[in-house]
Amino acid sequence: MNEEAPSFKSQLLGHLPSLRAFARSLSGSADRADDLVQDTLMKAWSKQSSFEPGTNLRAWLFTILRNEFLTQARKQGREQSSGDPSYADGLAVLPEQPSSLDLKDLRAALKQLPEDQREAIVLVGALGMSYEEAAEICGCALGTLKSRVNRARSRLCDLMQVGNGAEFGPESEITGIATAQAPI
C-alpha cells in the first residue's frame, strides 16, 4: 500500500453522509441507497489511482454515484420485477410530528420530478452544494443546472401546494430545497 491510502480512506469516510443523502434522494429507499453508496465506495477504492490528488474528491465521488445509479436504473429497466414495491411502502406507520409529515410529502413530491430536476435540487438544496459543483457532477452547463433547480422548486411548491419554503418547518432538508437561496 502506498502512503496516500490512509488519507484517501479518511477522505472517503468524510463524504459518507452526503453520499448517502444523495443516494437516498435518487433511489427513494434507504436500503437501495446504502447499496448504491457501497458500490460507489468500492468503485472509488478500486479506481483511486485514477483520482488526481488536489482535485475535487466530492465531485468525483458524486459522479461515480450518479453513474452507478443510472447504470442500475438502466439494468433494472431490462429486468422483470417480482412483486409490487408499493405494498411495502403501505406497511409503514405514519409519523406523528408535522415536520416528519412535511418531509414525507417532500419525498413523495421529489419522486414526481423528472430525474434531472430531482438530482439538481437535491445537490443544491438538500446537500448545500454550489451551483458550479452540482453542474460539474451533473455534467451540464451552469445555466442549465440553475434552470433545473428553479423548475424543480416551482414544481415542488405546486405539488405540495405551498407558496414558498417559509411555509415548511425549520428542518434544513426541507427549507433548503424549497427556498430560492443556494450556496454560490
TrEMBL record:
<dbReference type="GO" id="GO:0006352">
    <property type="term" value="P:DNA-templated transcription initiation"/>
</dbReference>
<dbReference type="InterPro" id="IPR013325">
    <property type="entry name" value="RNA_pol_sigma_r2"/>
</dbReference>
<protein>
    <recommendedName>
        <fullName>RNA polymerase sigma factor</fullName>
    </recommendedName>
</protein>
<keyword id="KW-0805">Transcription regulation</keyword>
<dbReference type="InterPro" id="IPR007627">
    <property type="entry name" value="RNA_pol_sigma70_r2"/>
</dbReference>
<dbReference type="InterPro" id="IPR036388">
    <property type="entry name" value="WH-like_DNA-bd_sf"/>
</dbReference>
<dbReference type="GO" id="GO:0003677">
    <property type="term" value="F:DNA binding"/>
</dbReference>
<dbReference type="InterPro" id="IPR014284">
    <property type="entry name" value="RNA_pol_sigma-70_dom"/>
</dbReference>
<dbReference type="InterPro" id="IPR013324">
    <property type="entry name" value="RNA_pol_sigma_r3/r4-like"/>
</dbReference>
<dbReference type="GO" id="GO:0016987">
    <property type="term" value="F:sigma factor activity"/>
</dbReference>
<dbReference type="Pfam" id="PF08281">
    <property type="entry name" value="Sigma70_r4_2"/>
</dbReference>
<dbReference type="InterPro" id="IPR039425">
    <property type="entry name" value="RNA_pol_sigma-70-like"/>
</dbReference>
<keyword id="KW-0238">DNA-binding</keyword>
<dbReference type="InterPro" id="IPR013249">
    <property type="entry name" value="RNA_pol_sigma70_r4_t2"/>
</dbReference>
<feature type="domain" description="RNA polymerase sigma-70 region 2">
    <location>
        <begin position="15"/>
        <end position="78"/>
    </location>
</feature>
<comment type="similarity">
    <text>Belongs to the sigma-70 factor family. ECF subfamily.</text>
</comment>
<feature type="domain" description="RNA polymerase sigma factor 70 region 4 type 2">
    <location>
        <begin position="105"/>
        <end position="156"/>
    </location>
</feature>
<dbReference type="Pfam" id="PF04542">
    <property type="entry name" value="Sigma70_r2"/>
</dbReference>
<keyword id="KW-0731">Sigma factor</keyword>
<dbReference type="InterPro" id="IPR000838">
    <property type="entry name" value="RNA_pol_sigma70_ECF_CS"/>
</dbReference>
<keyword id="KW-0804">Transcription</keyword>
